[in-house]
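Protocol step 4 of 6: structure prediction from sequence.
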Amino acid sequence: MDAGLAVARSPEVEEAIRRRAERFYEDRGRAPGHQVEDWLKAEAEVLREFELAQAPKPAFVMVRFEGAVYTGEYDAKRCDGYAPGEFREGAPVEVRFNAGNICLKRPNGKELEMRIVRKEIEK
């Protein structure tokens, strides 16, 4: 194998690929001669699943501020432990804006920074 094509993988990923390839072998009735095909198919499926599991998980918070309602989007996987429900509806919260983002001061003193995806002026 060309060293430029080698990919470092965790033992967890390698084991998942091995189990999937083995399942393909079993499903085929243990017919020999398809090891490479089974491995490549298993590898593609498992890597796709791991990639999807690592993909951002968008979540949203709506904030009413100075006559407008802002919808902020954040990555639920990378939000420094923020959990929905930390902010109670109607409760005051410190807000600051930063280059297209809205930042809310959480009860624990940390900030939840979100990308503004919508601004609606209240009537």
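Step 5 (inspection) to follow. The first strand starts at residue 58 and ends at 65.
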